[in-house]
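seq as requested:
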Amino acid sequence: MKRRLRALQKWADSFQGHFPTDVPSTERYWNWKIPVQANLVQGPHTTPEIQAQCAQALINACQHLMQSKAGFARDWRITAVICLPDFFTSEICIYKDEGYFASHTREAEGPGGTSRHLKSSLAEEWQLQLAPGSSELGIHLDCADPDQPDGRFICQRWYFGEVMPR
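struct tokens:
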């Protein structure tokens, strides 16, 4: 466990001073999934403490990218997205398209489901450290999903980094 957490922090630190220059110009969004085994972050063998350490590593990677952002990317948003309960789908995201970012983070209601902003704070609950210039935004999703036993997909997505309205 400790070795896996150290490897995750080493991955997060690898973003320090390096901003990707190979993001395809045709993409609206680019990401890096959390590089761990699923059972480290979800399921019966994980704990809230382990999840908090993994979330902090994602936030650290996001903050390193924000600090090393190249001039050509000044309008791009960089976020860490923590997904619960499906933590294994968490990722670091670069949003090149403001409308695409808004489609993931705005409140909405329609025939396919709802998304609403959460008033709570995962950063406070898990004692996560955010760098100056970083913010937090929680989204509660409740969507129709025929692949789920009850026909619904319900989750929280917590965005950290460059998430404030522009």
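The CA atoms of residues 12 and 60 lie 6 Å apart.
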